[in-house]
Design a protein that fits this description.
By secondary structure, this protein is of the alpha+beta class. The protein has one domain (7-296). It has ten helices and five strands. The protein has a five-stranded mixed sheet, sandwiched between helices. Strand 2 (14-18) and strand 3 form a beta hairpin. The longest helix has 30 residues, at 84-113.
Length: 304
């Protein structure tokens, strides 16, 4: 039996699921599960037919819906409405910090070490430093109580997707027995991305030694290229289980980015997926008149 390639993300006290529809389910402060549909999926996006390009498209949609879902989950879980200006400022700060921490800082640390004129070696050391910073960052936030709960919802999302892909009825009892590790996880994608980036960046050294401004510019320009290659590798590892040994670093990292959920968290993930798959005949949506604000042209194989 063929199944839709669903994906999802953990959010604040909830789970975003992406299938036929894009849905967020959140456990509110009153203990009830609030559900909102934030996107629709139609059937014909020509860009999703092209390898490498489809990876960047899928990543764009995953990030776009993810940002909307985080803001929405914060509102639904707390009962307080977020100002749009606060959301925009938060996104800008996050982008600037990401560029500074994972692109600019590694390049300058590599230069400080003394690697200057060998572009391949520079890219290799720069890449390992970037990977080290990323691992330290993930480890650091995993110690935070609030983040730990998000990681539990991440585990609930994976267990629920495994339950769906197994063909068994979606239920807490069935989902409970599955692993919190999933080969199509965004964590896997990030690890593959970091490794592929080293190789792609080093190729620019064939055109000669770059200065610092050129190196940083190259890393920004290469983002879609690296994302496209990484996505195709992720699809390959998902399709052919025997190749998953090559994705072992990302699978191991999920030991940090996921945690064992409780039954109430599994319930939220199951509710979210059932609505995303259109399995509920009557959906009580928050802000029902404004429930769908985005459309995708084709079923995207979302990061899970």
């Amino acid at each position: 039996m063929n199944f839709l390639k669903v994906g999802g993300q953990a959010v604040i006290e909830g789970v975003l699921m992406m299938g036929k529809k894009v849905v967020v389910a959140v456990r509110g402060s009153d203990g009830n599960i609030a559900v909102k549909e934030i996107g629709g999926v139609s059937q014909n996006n020509k860009w999703m037919k092209y390898p490498f390009i489809r990876g960047f498209v899928s990543l764009f949609y995953s990030l776009s819906f993810g940002l909307k879902a985080i803001d929405l989950s914060a509102e639904l879980s707390s009962g307080e409405e977020m100002k749009k200006s606060e959301s925009v400022i938060s996104i800008l700060i996050a982008v600037v910090l990401a560029i500074g921490l994972f692109i600019v800082a590694p390049a300058y640390i590599t230069k400080w070490i003394g690697i200057r004129n060998n572009e391949f070696l520079f890219s290799l050391i720069d890449g390992f430093i970037r990977l080290g910073i990323f691992l330290l960052y993930v480890w650091g936030i995993s110690l935070m109580k609030d983040v730990k709960r998000v990681f539990q919802y991440h585990g609930a999302e994976h267990k629920t997707v495994h339950n769906y892909e197994s063909g068994e009825e979606l239920s807490i009892e069935n989902a409970r027995k599955y692993s919190t590790i999933h080969p199509r996880c965004g964590t896997n994608f990030l690890m593959i991305f970091l490794i592929v980036a080293v190789l792609v960046h080093s190729l620019f050294g064939l055109f000669g030694t770059l200065n610092m401004f050129q190196r940083i510019l190259v890393r920004l320009i290469a983002l879609p290229i690296v994302a496209g290659i990484s996505y195709e590798l992720l699809r390959l590892f998902d399709k052919y289980p025997k190749l998953r040994i090559l994705a072992a670093p990302g699978m191991l990292l999920q030991k940090l980015t996921t945690a064992e959920p409780d039954d109430s968290q599994l319930e939220v993930a199951i509710v979210s997926l059932r609505h995303a798959l259109g399995m509920e005949d009557e959906v009580e949506l928050v802000n029902k008149n404004d429930s769908i604000d985005t459309e995708i042209d084709k079923p995207v194989e979302f990061l899970g």
